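G., the chain you wanted modeled:
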Amino acid sequence: MSTPSIKVGQGNWGIKTGNLLGYANTDKKFVARDFTVGRLLNTATRVNASGNIEGVLANVPRIDYFGGQASLLVEPSAQNLALRSAELDNAVWTNALWGNWSNATATSSTTIAPDGSTNAEELTFTAGTSSRLQRITGIAASTTYTFSMYVMGKEGNNYQNGIFLRIATGFNNALVATSAATGRVDSTVSNTAWTRYSVTFTTPSSGVNEFNVGITVANSGTNPNATMICWGAQLETGSVSTSYIPTTTGSVTRNADVISLTGVAGLIGQTEGTIYAEVDFRTLGKSAASRVIELTDGTNANRIIIAFGNDTQLITRVTTATVEQASFATTVAFGVLKIAFAYSSLGCVLYVNSTNAQSNASATIPATNQVNLGFAGASLSSHLNDRIRAVSIYQTRLPNTTTDGSPSLQSITTL
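Predicted structure as tokens:
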């Protein structure tokens, strides 16, 4: 069958509380099939069709328009440790460890913030070194953190340096970051567009219990009272800036997205088949085996996966009764990836953006009955931390190429 038995996305997204609508090919016509969606609490956000960040209700899939095209955003759980994330005029942002540094002045801005409101703050920095900092306590040693904030310059200002992240390893024991490698971002700040700047750092192995995060301009040049507009501070564990989590008086946790379709053995090719996925690949530093899609029987013993490993490694794998039948690792670049992974007893083959990447000669195919999008089902882990544009499942192993215009691995992956 050269028509997919299950398809999701491709610009045609249907959502409701607790479900993402996919489409199954039944009796040669597509009918809606509900992927269950689990994500507790109303703390998740997305970029809507107007380009604004907005909140999404619990258990509602996040159809995200970051980059301009509707995609399914799937992320792990994350916690924003920075308080008053959109209130830089609050006293919590003047609680610095370094008493000899003056704090930048924060005032309300009329500039539209990334969420469409006017609750951004203007920070005016004095000559020399000036900061707007927040003390974060309860910090773990030998732990990787990422701090991020949306920033835009104000017209008429000049900037020699951009955003710095200042880190301390304990009260009155300041460790000032001196390079990007140790926790600083130097950048020219745009006067016309919001940019989310981020920096990732690892705390020392001992002597750490608190530090400062915030915005600093050093040596502001010919305009000593440089002003930047800031919004959406976020401090989270890990090496990736995830979607914005608003906070007020306390830290806030966003729960993981869990999206799956069960009981569909009759729609999955059991002896041969093809999985297609289109992914908007943007996030470096993923955890090992971050899933794009997984066909499984609910265990790790029997599964067929498309995933990302660390950095820019694409992984495709077939496992039957815990034995790997095929395992491909391919280096890919950031951008839109169209991926097709075909499997049968005669072997498996991987195509990426119309190119035959890898293949093998034989495989024993596992029986599967479940489709997981963006996470590993058996462990509720390995979340994608990125966006899926489309998924299709075929019950046949599509040919590598065709000459009659019918679908092939090459044609469905051509950008």
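The first strand starts at residue 6 and ends at 9.

Shout if anything looks off.
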